[in-house]
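Incident log, structure service

09:12 report received: a user says their structure output differs between two submissions of the same chain.
09:20 pulled the input from the user's history:
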Amino acid sequence: MKIKLSVLLLVFFLAACSAKAPPEIAEMPPPPIEPPSVEHDPLHPVEWSTVEGWRADDLAAALEAFQGSCRAIGKRPRWQRVCAIAEDLNPSGSQSARSFFEIFFQPYQVRNEDGSSVGMITGYYGPELEGSRKPTEKFRYPLYAQPDDLLIIDLDEVYPELGDYRLRGRVVGNRVVPYFERSEIDESRQLLAGHEIFWVEDPVELFFLHIQGSGRIRLSDGELVMVNYANQNGHRYRSIGKLLLERQAMTRDQMSMQNIKAWVEQNPEAGMELLAENPSYVFFRELPADFTSPPGALGVPLKAQRSVAVDPRTIPLGAPVFLATTFPGTEQPLQQLMVAQDTGGAIKGRVRADFFWGMGEDAGAIAGRMKQDGRLWVLLPKEVTPLELQTGVTFGTPAAGVN
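09:34 re-ran on a clean worker, output below:
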């Protein structure tokens, strides 16, 4: 009986295996095979004729900005030769500047991971605030220097793959804990007592000075003092503009620095609560009197309308960068050679740049409205062939300057 039952079960099992699948399953096509995603190289070599607006730009101001960069990068092997040549050039000569860049540089179009070439271009500036070195009834809001208890931990020695990251905090007992947030610092002046370097009148203007990272303080005697980013409390920046959009307090078309300021001033209580929702806090340093423009991440003074902040993971600091976009709020082309001299916490991505408009209220008015599409080309030094040097071009200096 056991043998017959086993045979019966075996026959049933083989029959089940040979049965066709139900029609609705058998007729279904196999799932499509998706092609593997291809990440495009960030820098694609191109001809000068494809750089939008290249021939129309007066390159003298860009050459002057690049000469400034060479004070920081001129000893690096990649840049040593072109910086030595640039040093001998007269920046007032537009044609010699054009010949210099075309002979000694190769343009590369900056591309996103998917191969597209369009990215976001924003603007920034250096605010100017009235202030005092001592607190008064008028000037009640402090700018702080970097506090003594701010602990900065570089991770690259322990975790090389995290070399771009730094931890900031403070020691409590035998533990490292996050540093104080913006709301804690603003609510308890005793936390950083003794580290005040200036006092200003307007907390909203001070908040935007934190965002810009650099600015000027105008003292009562007319003296202008440049202040610059010294460090940060380690908390991630949270955009109050994005919060206003999420809460439908403002539309995307209305979004600008000027409208954010107006909203905070028109809603004093809710406005100060909004500012406190950004936990990031910046500490400042006073710069020597000869600084009339803030130094960027490269350490050289920024040049108005010729310096740009970039993501250095794609574009090397110090490199010339041609930008093709439009003036804020218009269709008028803004196509000119810039120099990558700064970075920023919000400047992340390949085709991403922040245009430095200069110092003061007028620069702020246009910088705060700038948020539009643009394209970038980075210029990198190339090996120059003898044929290229036989173009007969002179640079306004002896020919030895190009040897």
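09:41 both user submissions now match this output. Likely a transient worker issue. Closing.
09:42 reviewer note: The chain has two domains: 43-123+298-402, 128-286. The mean pLDDT is 85.
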